[in-house]
Amino acid sequence: MYKNIQGILLITGIEREDLVSVYADLEGKCRKGLTKPYDGQKVFVGNGTTVLARKEIFCSQQNVR
Fold it and tell me: How many domains are contained in the chain?
């Protein structure tokens, strides 16, 4: 269902249906899969609810290229 997830770089300890705040990295320096808070320049985008857990996004064999 969610085979091509673009733009998600940092998620720490997130499970399905967790409430999250979404930020945009303004410097383009946040690395994909980062597990600690990002201290770079960012802007708040909005709040939402996750439909996938972190392990489903970053550890899925479907997303391996």
Answer: 1
In DSSP notation, the chain reads ------S--B--S--TT-EEEEEEESSS-PPTTB-S---S-EEEEEEEE-SS-HHHHHS-GGG--
Q: Which domain holds residue 65?
A: 1-65
> For residues 52 and 32, what is the distance between their CA atoms, to the nearest angstrom?
16
**pLDDT tens-digit readout, 17-64:** 999 888 888 888 888 767 777 888 988 989 999 888 878 877 755 544
d(C-alpha 11, C-alpha 13), whole Å: 7
Question: How are beta strands 42-49 and 19-25 bridged, if at all?
Answer: antiparallel
